[in-house]
Structures are given as C-alpha cells and as structure tokens.
Amino acid sequence: MLSSSTASPTRRRLLLPPMHRRGWRIVVRRVPLYKELYEASSRLRDAKLRTLEFEVRLAEKGRLGLEQLAEVLPRFMPTPKKEEVPEPFVPLTDEDEDSVDHALGGRNRRERLVVHESSNIVITREILQCLNEKDWLNDEVINLYLELLKERELREPNKFLKCHFFNTFFYKKLSTDGYDYKSVRRWTTKRKLGYSLTECDKIFVPIHKEVHWCLAVINIRDKKFQFLDSLGSMDMKALRILARYLVDEVKDKSGQHIDVLSWKQEGVKNLPLQENGWDCGMFMLKYIDFYSRDMDLIFGQAIESHRAGAEVFHGDGACRKKSVEMLEELGLPKGLLPLEDIEEFGYNRGTGFMWLSQRKKWTEHTFKKIKQTVSYAAEVTAFVEKGKLRKITGVKTKELMLWLSVVEVYVANASPEKVTFKTGTGLSDSFDATAFALGE
C-alpha cells in the first residue's frame, strides 16, 4: 500500500474532506442545528397552545350559555307532577271476604285454619278472633305474618331489602333480667339462617310492652338503631340493649369487634299514628312491611280523618234519637240499626261518614217479620247518602250457617218499598221495608 507522501496528486485530492470537492458549496452555520430545532418546536408548541386556548374559551362560553339556559328554561316548562306511590294494600276480593267471614264466624273454635310447617305455627279459629274489632293482635298472628314476609323476600329478592325478622319472643328472652345474650345466642347460627345478621340491611325486633306493640330496627345499612311506636313514645333502653346485642353477636359469630358508638339511636318521627286503643299491632306490622320494601311510611288510618269534622253525641238516649233522625233524613227505615246500649254516635255531613259505638262486643238482632238475623259489632261505620249506606263495616247477616259481611244497604228509587242488603261476596237480597220499622 502506498503511503500518503508518495500518492499521486489525483489521489491526494480525493482524500480531501468532502466540502473541498469540486462543485460542492460550503455552508457555514451561524446558529447551531440543535438551537434551530428547539426554536422550530417552540413555534409549533405555541401554535398548538393558542389553538387549545381558543377551544377552552369556546367551551367556557358554551358552559355559561347552558347555565343561563338552565335557569331560564324551567320558566317556560310545566312543573312535572310528582308520581304518587300507591299504598301496597291489596283490596279483598269477594271470595276473600267470604273466606274471612268463614274463618271468623264458624262454630268450631278449635278448628285448625292454618298450619305453617316451617315455623310450626298453628292458627285456630279461636286464635284468629284477635282480628275482630277492638282486639289486640296475638303472638301467633304476628309471627305468622313475619314468616310470610320472609317467604316473600325469598320469592322476589330484587324487590325487597335483605332483612331478618325476629319473632315476638326474641326481645323477651334477650331482655330477661336486664340483658341475657346467652339465651338467644343459638337463634342466629349461620347453619340455621343460611346467612349472618351483618349481611342484612335491616333487622326487625317486635317489642311487647304489657298491652302495647312497638318496633325496634337494627338498621345496619344506615348504621342506626331505630324505635317506632304508633303512640309516639321512645324507648332508649331497648335501643341500648340491641346495640349491646349486635356487638356480642358479631364477636360471637365472627370473632370481630363492631364499633356502634357512632351509630345513631333515634325515635323515628312523623310516623303514621294509631287513633284508637287497639291497632298498635297492625301499625307495627305495617312499619315492618313498608321498611322491608324500603318505602316511606305512607299509610294511615284514613277513615279517622272523617271523624274530625263530625258532630258527636254520647249516651244511649241521645245516640238513638240522632241515628234515627239521620236514617229518616236519608229515606231509610228507622229501625235499620238496632244497636243496644249505644255509647257514641257521630255524623260528618260534609263527607257522609257516620259511626255508632255500643258497649257490647256484638249484638245479634232478629227482624221477626222476615226471620233474618243480623249481628252488629262494637262499632258500626258507613258512608251515607240519600237512600243508601255504603262501605259498611261491623254488620253481618247469617246465611246458611255462615256470617257474611254486609257492605251496602239501599232503597232503590224504583222500589222504595224494598230494602236491599248486599254482602261482601256479591250476593244481595231484598226485603219488605216495613220489616225494618222502628221497634221491629
């Protein structure tokens, strides 16, 4: 290989750097390349930022415009009506009314009407008599209803909260000698229930206070201990007992500690309240029914509102006189309501509501001319209008050894000499109006 010193001139020219080759232009950079690239990227970035800034301003103007529109638009739109939530009460069919009449009115008081196998609850006709007017619900009827609520939840779990329903004996056991967890410890094993109490949204605890039913709720979902009383009272002692129970229950079943010190203990306000001395059990059960549906307590004794504006009379003499005057005014026979030893008569002319209360629990009267026996409960109510008593409660007539509820009595314009009785089964019969004359 030749060394550079001996290479020919041509070869030496080829070995010169490229910028010295013939025909090539030598470029001398005043600004380094990296600075040019940086400035170019800065100009591109600034352009994008200006575009983004414009889009932000545009979006802000759009937002402000929508806010102004939202303020103005309701003035030109009708206010939507709040949808009324229907009360979850199913009216009895004629067939249901017939079944009720048979269940309450049969002769054999020891007859088994219901046998609930899973709970071993047996309902006889004697036990079912607590559903009559002015009676208190007993343990068997309440506990059977709670069993039916359990079964309802299992059938349609998506419609109802996950709940546990203690029976009426639980709190009695738990509160023995102040507090006794051991007596109820085995009531809630997972083997028995199939779940633990802490998996529930709400736990219902019926409480019986000698002659009054109340309800306590361990509201796990909302972290509350709640007390509901249809007379409006509060029992902090019961809530403290249940708070202690929940702590012991969780520790016993899971070995863990649950802190309930921050849980609220409250008497639920704005409850539907009973307006008599015997419906506490029914109110307690409806509290449970509605709460297990996760519904507001929208029920009440609607019929009681009609008493507020009524003219009321007391004493047998005054009540008989006023009730006869009302029947005469309506064009109905004066002897249609032969109650005995009447204590109270009320009549609200504005709504047409009337009631009669007698001292006896039941009065049976046979209208001799037609040989028809009719029974009258301790309280009879009806809505009245010219020639008619409708929505009657507390009146039954005997047909073929069965007592059937009378729901309507009327005198037709076309046949004023006849009085028609209509029962809850849909059956009706007409009689000579003179059979119901005063004193008959």
TrEMBL record:
Gene Ontology CC terms, in alphabetical order: nucleus
Keywords: Hydrolase, Protease, Thiol protease, Ubl conjugation pathway
Residue intervals passing through the bilayer: none
UniProt keyword Magnesium, yes or no: no
SUPFAM superfamilies in alphabetical order: At5g01610-like, Cysteine proteinases
Family stated for the protein in its record: Belongs to the peptidase C48 family.
Domain Ubiquitin-like protease family profile: 121-291
Superkingdom of origin organism: Eukaryota
Gene Ontology biological process: protein desumoylation; proteolysis
Protein name, UniProt field: Ubiquitin-like protease family profile domain-containing protein
One function term, GO molecular function aspect: deSUMOylase activity
